[in-house]
Amino acid sequence: MIWKHAVVLSTILAVSSSTILPFPPGFKFGAATAAYQVEGGWNLDGKSENIWDRFVHEHPERIDDRSTGDVACDSYHNWRRDLEMAEELRLDFYRFSLSWSRILPSGFPNHINEAAIEYYNNVIDGILEKGIEPLVTIHHFDLPQSLQDLGGWANPLIVDWFEDYAKVVFAHFGDRVKLWLTINEPVILCEAFFNAEVFPPAFISPDLGVYLCSKHVMLAHAKAWRVYDKLLKPKYHGRVSLTTHITWFEPLAPEYEELAELTMLNFGGRYSHAIYSKIGGWPPALEKALAEVSLKRGYSRPQLPPFTQEEIELVRGTYDFFALNHYTSRLMRTAKEGEKFTEWPLGDVEDLNGIIVRKADWAQAATSWFYVNPEGIRKGLVWLKQQYGDLEFMITENGLATKAGLDDQDRVQYYRDYLEQVLLAINEDDVNVTAYTAWTLMDNYEWNNGYTVKFGLYEVNFTDPGRKRTPRASAHYYANIIRTHSLEIPTTSIQL
Ligand code: NOJ
């Protein structure tokens, strides 16, 4: 009897010190990975070399621990375990990406690698058998080397190459995959490829390469979207969008408000306006500002290549929802005379004469670019709604970089705080957010950080040949959020 009272009392105490906030009915939870970061099998069964294979083999010094993604989590062999984990978490959907150089070893559809089709068929069927939905990213940073050798994202023909690749994957997997993302984070893709020596090909062309890439990515996405819309949508009723990286930028002081807004337009808007705005094309204020910079630098044409009217029509409206990845925030101020900002991955701010800083009370996560500011996700969502209207928003990545350890209370806290802000955006700001994706299901190859930085809900032992996966505290926490379809918030930090 005494025991029973104690239980009742502790329940009352627990209830009185926290609030349970439900997610809207139908809100979905997922977790994500990407091919190069998890698959391994870099040269198995007909896969050809992609730009990351070449880069890490030729330039180990560019990777913090000189590691490669040759084996990574070995999901090429361990995919069944990955899906078990998705099931343990009770995910509604699992986001993963396809490797272009595995499916089309030449980069072109003249040869379709049957082993790759079989591999992805197994993964997709396995996901569906568990009652989970596949969310497939067609391209996530791992361009076939053969296409890079032809200029990669700077070559206008890549628009057709990507369309051809998309046709192949739609034809093979479109009967079962109903949710697609064409290209992951074009801003990172273009900036890191052409504006910093961080991602392959580490070819620096800040004036031209970056902007050619921006335009080609938009056209490539649009063509793929239109293929789906015309050929598959009537039969399979699936949905396709681009996934845009949204960092939240705010002014350091009120006088920098215009600059912060321009930075939002440059970083997120450059990859959104053409698709989601009513008028299409580049964000006008950004196009104008960059054209002035080009003139000042002595170019006879704008560095950001203008869209033709036909291209504006091609890209406009090519979405079924707004997909965003979000991690971090920054403050903006104007550069002083002679001052330059070169920090990756935000290089282009130099063209806006801006300097990026951070708020002292935003804690730094375990990687250089990452400061924690939960409110940023809410503000970013509200900004997007103001810019592009009352769209459906799906958060396709969000998560924390940490160092090793299973008891990752910092990640638990991050998910709690960011999800609280997502709920505030839904409940207070009336933003129609329908899905949230944790990055990432398991520790994996974090690009230039190699295996030194962990983002996983599951820890992966990279010295174990079997790449054993073990759930962290955050995996239990996330599973509990999904099971209860709600967030339990201690009342002290509630900001309703
Ligand atoms: C976004 C990218 O899509 C993903 O590949 C990367 O690992 C995470 N950010 C964390 O940096």
Automatic annotation (TrEMBL):
InterPro entries referenced in this protein's UniProt entry, alphabetically: GH, GH_1_N_CS, Glyco_hydro_1
Pfam family, any one: Glyco_hydro_1
Keyword terms, alphabetized: Glycoprotein, Glycosidase, Hydrolase, Signal
PROSITE patterns: GLYCOSYL_HYDROL_F1_2
Protein species of origin: Spodoptera litura
The family this protein is said to belong to: Belongs to the glycosyl hydrolase 1 family.
Subunit structure: Homodimer.
Any GO BP annotation: carbohydrate metabolic process
Protein name: Myrosinase 1-like isoform X1
An annotated Gene Ontology molecular function: beta-glucosidase activity
Signal sequence interval, chain numbering: 1-18
Superkingdom of the organism of origin: Eukaryota
Secreted in keyword set: no
